[in-house]
Design brief:
- The longest helix is centred in the C-terminal third of the chain and has 31 residues, at 287-317.
- The chain has a domain at 4-122 and 144-208: Spore Coat Polysaccharide Biosynthesis Protein SpsA, Chain A (Alpha-Beta Complex), CATH 3.90.550.10.
- α1 (14-25) links the parallel β1 (4-10) and β2.
- α9 (242-260) packs across α10 (264-284).
- The protein is built from twelve helices and ten strands.
- It is of the alpha/beta class.
- The chain has helices at residues 14-25, 46-50, 68-77, 97-107, 125-135, 164-169, 180-190, 211-231, 242-260, 264-284, 287-317, 322-325; strands spanning 4-10, 33-39, 58-63, 83-87, 91-93, 112-114, 117-118, 159-163, 195-197, 203-205.
- The radius of gyration is 20 Å and the shape is globular.
- Strands 3-2-1-4-8-6-9 form a seven-stranded mixed β-sheet. A three-stranded mixed β-sheet has the order 5-10-7.
Length: 333
């Protein structure tokens, strides 16, 4: 039976950590260890962790801040088991999460794997709308919601497993603070390792709780993509530029309307808006979420698209290095 070490890198999220650990206490398979790496939190996490010492096998380490990737590396160095399971601190797992991972590993040959994320019924309306925007076929192409829209699945660190020997052989996560998980997935492919999607290990991912924080987060994701394109040029796709084209097209539609007096392009955005409303409402069975999903989807596309465009210009037109253009995206060892 595969042995698992769950690595949780965390910065300050005490309440989220409590909910994650609580969900892990309900696992049908309780044979796993948890390694919590406190990435320089200013909030004391120990009382929360101590409350689970009797029910979970936990190791806790605190270190100076270096970002999630290097903190996960720190935790993996102290892991005792065959497989490393990385989850974000703001997720909740179902009671058969561990059991389903082990069942999949017994029947699938792979070096790394991942699963989807979704909204919990207890999330607020904005969280559910944001979850829709990040997993829908009409926004991100569904790459976080399932494998069906992808020919090759790219595990993400909110729900990701890697064989420890393989993780060690590629040096773990890179110095990138943002985009470190797709960077690892593509590095694994380049080294000849295989990845898989497990459709029964989805996690409930809280993400950001308001649109302002969500906008800042996806903006940073957009900035990271051209950096990843430089690091892994063989995996560049035209679809990565879609949010930027969406943003530029939206601006162009208003120029067309006010300069030429008609709105043929603007009408396409109106149809897209209606499509999001109908699809999100049907999927969530809530028209309020449908309307909020319109806002979340436009924020996701505009913020990501602006970040991508800015980063692409800095790197490819102005010729700046990633470290020079976005120093906060990298940790200096």
């Amino acid at each position: 039976m595969p042995s698992l070490s769950i690595i949780i890198a965390i910065y300050n999220r005490k309440d989220e950590l409590f909910e994650l650990l609580q969900s892990l206490t309900f696992q049908t398979d309780k044979d796993f260890e948890i390694i919590i790496v406190d990435d320089g939190s200013v909030i004391n996490l120990l009382p929360t962790i101590e409350s689970f010492k009797e029910t979970l096998k936990i190791q806790y380490f605190k270190k100076s801040n270096s970002g999630p990737g290097l903190s996960r590396n720190y935790g993996s160095e102290r892991a005792q088991n065959e497989w490393l399971i990385f989850v974000d601190s703001d997720v909740i797992v179902e009671k058969d999460y561990i059991q389903n991972i082990k069942n999949n590993l017994q029947h699938n040959t792979c070096d790394a794997f991942g699963g989807a994320d979704k909204a919990h019924h207890g999330f607020n309306l904005i969280q559910k709308a944001i979850s829709y925007a990040m997993t829908s076929l009409f926004t991100t192409g569904g790459i976080r919601g399932s494998k069906k829209s992808m020919s090759k699945f790219q595990p993400r660190s909110f729900n990701m497993g890697v064989r420890k020997s393989v993780f060690d052989s590629v040096g773990g996560f890179s110095e990138m603070r943002i985009g470190e998980d797709p960077d690892l997935s593509m590095t694994l492919w380049e080294k000849g390792f295989t990845t898989a999607f497990f459709d029964d290990i989805a996690v409930y991912h809280k993400r950001r709780v308001d649109f302002g924080k969500f906008s800042k987060q996806v903006y940073q994701f957009g900035c990271a993509r051209p950096i990843l394109n430089q690091r892994h040029p063989q995996y560049v796709k035209l679809s990565f530029a879609f949010p930027s084209l969406f943003l530029l097209g939206y601006i162009g539609s208003f120029i067309e309307y006010f300069a030429l007096g008609y709105g043929s392009i603007l009408s396409l955005y109106g149809f897209y808006t209606f499509l999001i409303l109908v699809h999100a409402t049907i999927k969530t069975k809530n028209i309020s979420i449908g309307f909020l999903a319109i806002m979340a989807s436009y924020i996701q596309l505009f913020s990501y698209g602006f970040g991508f465009l800015q980063s692409w210009i800095l790197l490819n037109i102005l010729g700046k290095s990633p470290e020079e253009a976005f120093p906060h995206h990298f940790h200096r060892r």
